[in-house]
TrEMBL record:
This is beta-galactosidase. Residues 370-652 form the Glycoside hydrolase family 2 catalytic domain. The keyword Hydrolase applies. PROSITE patterns: GLYCOSYL_HYDROL_F2_2. Residues 664-699 form the Beta-galactosidase domain. The lineage of its organism: Bacteria, Pseudomonadati, Bacteroidota, Bacteroidia, Bacteroidales. It comes from Bacteroides luti.
Length: 701
């Protein structure tokens, strides 16, 4: 078996060499490849500003269902696209975007997907370090000959498909949104260049109105594996490429609510709430708009909440002009949102003028208030504990192009393991994940797409990277600010110390969202830490207890990574959990990490393997370091880590304190619910055989 597998890898490398071998090792930017991909200050061309995840709806009924992709004004462009892959940018079909360029002979690829998973080029697993030569800000420099990137210098995927614009969208604005493209891409529509984007894990949106026509249209997308932004994407995971999240075409009126922020603020008794909305309304048209009104109304299911509505005026706007308006109203004693009681209402916005409603949007709303009092982090006046996992967006069958069904399976496994918390390591996730966490009840630490572990400490003060670091944090905050599950913003991971770039990013995040707090582990602890939390990774339970008891520290202590689940480890988790429970200064933390990130290698159909680092013959790689999940790659195969976590993290503790009388101490560690709704029973076994059993009648706990 070993001989057969080795032969396959050698054959694969030889084929790649034949396909991409060339004498040219130094390509000329602007001639052999676009200069933009090596410009760290070029973050995009013609992109729309970052905003909350939103969608216009054709009716109140659609808005209350809040299914963005089911809107009458949304067409999902997922499916089969024509596709071409090359190993070097100068081999790409430069004119493929032209309407008369024939792509009928090209193969097809599903969107979303990662092209390496489907056999195009080589996947890499790396923990720390880049798969191209470090030569900031360049990504085209020649690496050592043993690097896979020596032959696959910067692969390019060229995508094309036709799409229809409905006739009833005539006179409206037409936008296209890419939720995730790794790593940088250019877009053309009907042969005309529209724009460029970097940042692989936040929405890239373009206004296509002047490029499209009713009926049949054509879109072309050119994706580069590496760009200068790749220096910010050195996360511990498989390095994969392509259009790996949803692509949507959608329509809005010429005067459009392009962004809004719904905030709730409970009173001092945490009973009644003020709900406020700030909205940005822009006239995208070429003619002045009429004066309109913006109304915000709250619904509980399909029923309007009595008195929970407000209206404000939108002035007439000149072409291109934007107005920022605010609305607020009081909601009497709404049900409160928490990870244990994830009650959601719906805020509906309607833009009204002329003959009626011109635009309708909506957002799920959870009533909760976040505070830090002393060294305690509180929600709705109650100190909470975070016991959770770091979760990568990865499934071994599809790579990073995960489905909603797979997200839901992750939530099932995470919740059944008694976790109440997920850190989105180390990037913004698919927008649907945040919606599901709102529904299921998960405390989220929402992390921005920023990590340069393999170039640690080099870019946190680099002036050419300042705009990119801020931009990625702005996108993270703007995209997901309306989600009650998000309780903390994280600026990134393993990047550098208290660098001015991250301090600037933190200040911008706080200016956008004053309702939440900001974490960045590399800021450390103590008086030189500008963030809202003291933090450190890893350490023993006694280390963390010492931090909690250190009177010189003044902030809540959050542990973004602990209990590294490598191989047969994580056996002391119960000790960590007790330290969390017994020290109010500790907010809690997230195990590294949730799942084993294996990836199926099926390139030899007769011998598919579940690959770890090196399993595709790639170099460099970090071998089996990826084998550190609490759960196995399939979320089914039981590892000893999972029952260990489920027991250590359980929110009801029982202790037999007096065996002779059968006295049991029961502790409720839930923060928002009593044990009234739980059934309790007991069994007595002798040598594994049940000899007695009964039912416990619980008092109110």
């Amino acid at each position: 078996m070993k001989t057969k597998l080795l032969t396959f890898f050698i054959g694969a490398v030889a084929l790649l060499s034949t396909a991409s071998a060339q004498n040219v090792t130094q390509l000329v930017p602007g001639k052999d490849f676009p200069a933009e991909i090596e410009n760290p200050e070029c973050l995009g061309i013609n992109k729309e500003p970052a905003h909350a995840t939103l969608m216009p709806y054709a009716s109140l009924d659609e808005a209350l269902k809040a299914k963005r992709h089911k809107s009458s004004y949304c067409h999902v462009l997922n499916g089969m696209w024509k596709f071409n892959w090359v190993a070097w940018p100068n081999q790409r079909p430069v004119d493929f975007y032209k309407t008369d360029y024939d792509v009928s002979g090209w193969k097809e690829i599903p969107v979303p997907s990662n092209w390496q998973v489907l056999g195009y080029g080589t996947p890499y697993y790396r923990n720390i370090g880049y798969t191209f030569k470090i030569d900031f800000p360049h990504v085209m420099s020649e690496p050592s000959k043993n690097y896979t990137a020596y032959e696959e210098r910067n692969p390019v995927g060229s995508y094309r498909r036709d799409f229809d614009v409905p006739a009833d969208w005539n006179g409206r604005r037409v936008f296209i949104t890419f939720d995730g493209v790794d790593a940088a891409f250019f877009i053309w529509v009907n042969g005309q260049k529209v724009g460029y984007s970097t940042n692989s894990r936040n929405a890239a949106e373009f206004d296509l109105t002047k490029y499209v026509k009713p009926g049949k249209n054509m879109v072309a997308v050119e994706v580069y594996r590496y760009c200068s932004g790749s220096y910010l994407e050195d996360q511990d995971m498989w390095r994969l490429s392509g259009i790996f999240r949803n692509v949507t075409l959608w329509s809005a009126p010429q005067t459009h609510v392009r962004d809004f922020f719904v905030q709730t603020d409970l009173d001092k008794d945490y009973k009644n709430s003020e709900l406020s909305v700030s909205a940005k309304v822009k006239n995208y048209g070429s003619q002045p708009s009429q004066a309109q009104k913006l109304q915000a109304s709250l619904y509980n299911g399909s029923q309007p909440v009595e008195g929970a509505t407000a209206v404000t005026n939108i002035p007439a706007l000149k072409p291109g002009q934007e107005a920022i308006v605010a609305l607020k109203f009081t909601v009497n004693n709404p049900e409160k949102w928490s990870a244990e009681t994830p009650k959601l209402y719906t805020t509906v916005l309607t833009l009204q003028g002329g003959k009626g409603t011109n635009e309708t949007l909506s957002s799920r709303t959870g009533f909760r208030k976040i505070e830090i009092k002393g060294r305690q982090f509180q929600v709705n006046g109650t100190p909470i504990k975070l016991k959770g996992v770091n979760r990568h967006e990865h499934w071994s069958t599809v790579g990073h192009a995960i489905t909603e069904e797979q997200m839901i399976r992750d939530l099932e496994v995470i919740k059944q393991g008694n976790c109440n918390h997920v850190r989105t390591c180390h990037y913004s996730d698919d927008p649907r994940w945040y919606e599901l966490c709102d529904e299921w009840g998960i405390w989220l630490v929402a992390e921005a797409n920023a990590e340069c572990h393999g170039y640690d400490g080099k870019l946190d003060e680099e002036p050419r990277m300042k705009a990119a670091i801020i931009d990625r944090n702005v996108a993270n905050t703007e995209n997901f600010k309306n989600h009650p599950s998000v309780i903390i913003w994280s600026l990134g991971n393993e990047y550098g110390r208290v660098g001015s770039n991250f301090v600037s990013a933190m200040n911008v995040v706080k200016s956008i969202d004053p309702t939440r707090f900001v974490h960045y582990e590399r800021f450390g602890m103590g008086k030189n830490n500008p963030s809202d939390f003291d933090g450190r990774m890893y350490g023993t339970p006694s280390d963390f207890a010492w931090v909690a008891q250190n009177k010189e520290l003044t902030k809540p202590f959050y542990i973004c990574e602990f209990a590294h689940a490598m191989f047969n480890s994580m056996g002391s988790l119960d000790e960590y959990s007790k330290v969390f429970d017994n020290n109010p200064e500790i907010l809690g933390g997230a195990i590294w990490e949730y799942q084993d990130q294996a990836l199926w290698n099926k390139r030899n159909p007769e011998h598919p393997i579940l690959a770890y680092g090196g399993g595709f013959g790639e170099f460099p790689n970090d071998h089996y370091f990826i084998h550190k999940g609490v759960v196995a790659w399939d979320r089914k195969t039981i590892k000893p880590h999972y029952p260990e976590m489920k027991k250590a993290f359980q929110w009801i503790d029982t202790e037999l304190v007096e065996p002779s009388s059968g006295t049991i101490k029961i502790r409720n560690k839930f923060q928002f619910i009593s044990l009234d709704g739980f059934d309790a029973s007991w069994t007595l076994t002798e040598n594994g055989k049940e000899i007695d059993k009964g039912v416990l009648k619980l008092p109110r706990i």
